[in-house]
Amino acid sequence: MKNILIISYSAPPQNIPSAVRTGKLAKYFKELGWNPIILTVKNAGFYLNDNTLLDELSDIEIVRTNSLDPQMILKKLRPYKDIEISRKINKEKEGFISKLKSIFPIDDKIGWMPFCLKAASEIIRKHKIDAIYTFVGGINHPGISAYKLSKKHNIPYFVEFHDLWANHPFFERKIIGQYFNDYWEKKVVKSASGIITLAPGQKKFLQNKYPFSIGKIIFNLTGFDAELVTFPKHKTDELTITFCGSLYKNMTPKNIFDALLAIDKIEIPIKLKFIGDFRNSFFVLKNQFENKINNQKIKVEILHRMTYANLLLELQKSDALMLFLPNKEKFKPILHAKLYDYVVAGKPILAFVPKNSDVWNFVNDNQLGFVVEADNLENGKNTLTKLIAEYQANDLK
After folding, report:
1. Long-range residue pairs from 286-290, CB within 8 A, at least 24 positions apart, any chain
2. Is 12 helix (H, G, I), strand (E, B) or coil?
3. What percentage of the chain reaches a pLDDT higher than 70?
4. Sequence-ordered list of residues with C-beta below 8 angstroms from that of 317, at least 6 positions apart, any chain
5. Which of 17, 10, 12, 1 is nearest to 222 (CA)?
6. Is the dihedral of CA 289, 292, 298, 301 positive or negative?
7. Each residue of 119-153: pLDDT tens digit?
């Protein structure tokens, strides 16, 4: 069996999409005839751990190292429990987080790189590593680590783009940061044996940016763990529309709030459920919405992060599952990881996204629910009216 070294800052038991992705890939690499070895950080803190995700990897070697990135340093300095730190920083320090990230030329977790390179070299000496697999798009320096390890040990490497790297839509970089990310992205893409993107728009963007890369870039669906597919039936007493994940200043539920307020008369109880740890900007928007509601049948419920299994249960107990993207060109080449959790839940998706974006096409082409052009109030109002009517007729698919 061939050995593949997976380099990822995020890994189980962390319960965040990038960590779940790392664990599930390792789990299924085995079925493809590859023996995965995961290299990651020691308990990174801040996030809820889910040991059931780790239990799936009992027969897979995981090497964990120290790191000198701000997240790990803050964890040592603050007396809070991990999840309490996450909630406090996310809710109260969103401006601080943005400024902190902008300081670092590549990403704010780059303090892991020297530990990663040293541990990876030891793993390569201990095992006959046939390939390296890593991830970029948010946390980008593992791509540079893979490049350096490939040059040093003459091992091919593959890079998976969770999101775009140098042109990440949610990160506003300073000039020096943009230069370094463009510089290293080009070197990594050119030298890699293969590039995997998780959205077709990302593939097209990279091919246009780097014509020399056309033959080595593939688009691969994120997918889901087939063992989790159950599609249980669940009858609700109120129309429950659920969101899970993260929200930012430029990615908010404003569209669904506005659409509900625009409907003249709502005669059934509706619950909007949000699962995650959200920032102050979200709570400001939520409070504004609640102050405008005259219909007491509409309510908003907030649930904190939870284990992956419990999250899937909450999604299955819903009638529809919502997601959002800003109506700008740079947000079109995105396919949220949560889309696949939504698919596993077997509930219709209500997506407020740019027209003809990757999410728009994904939901439409696979008949997975409803797409609304973001910021199109009339479209949102009509689509929600249709969803409510189908729920009343017990005809939501």
Report:
1. 286/253, 289/257, 289/261
2. coil
3. 90
4. 234, 236, 240
5. 17
6. positive
7. 999 999 999 999 999 999 999 999 999 999 999 99
